[in-house]
């Protein structure tokens, strides 16, 4: 009997200039069955990205040279890879800005390496469904747009692919599966990246705002994705399989 090929280990890129923190996190990831490589700054990060493929990036905000926010913005312009940002305790501005420019989640320092590992696993699950689940997912269409859950791609009415973060794609998928329903922020987080990025209201609002910038003709006057006062959000488009 032929043996199945071994399953590829997800590989995480840790961009952190504190080697002890990075080493501890890498060791915890290894114990959880995930491989990791470490970069101390943006230059080392770029070199590793040219050499290897990664499934997720853990990115510290405070780095020598180009800071984490600038790196996140640059990465998101070209890649849809999930990004978790590490921020200093109490620096809410960094966290909100990080979400605004495309991070999928953030963790405040000091943090538990096991907590970060759990967040990584949750994002990896969202970014890559199990094969059986993928096979049963068919493309959804609304207002000329096409959302393909199997390939995790979104195309606009012209057929052009629109880049989205893991969180943005998951939000749009939840909305497409629940058209015409008012969904609370808690429901949206529970069905996207497992309520990892808090506070709840701010993180969901940031991702919704970014999503509107990509699918609405006028993000300032949204038609497809409405805010429901004291309720949450409602997707008004007609969705067809």
Automatic annotation (TrEMBL):
Q: Which residues form the Response regulatory domain?
A: 11-124
User: Which key words tag this protein in UniProt?
Assistant: Activator, Cytoplasm, DNA-binding, Phosphoprotein, Transcription, Transcription regulation, Two-component regulatory system
Q: Which residues bind DNA?
A: 137-237
Q: Which GO terms describe its cellular component?
A: cytosol; protein-DNA complex
Q: Which residues carry this modification: 4-aspartylphosphate?
A: 60
Q: What is this protein called?
A: Regulatory protein VirG
Q: Which organism is it from?
A: Aurantimonas aggregata
Per the record, the domain of life is Bacteria
Q: Cross-referenced SMART domains, in alphabetical order?
A: REC, Trans_reg_C
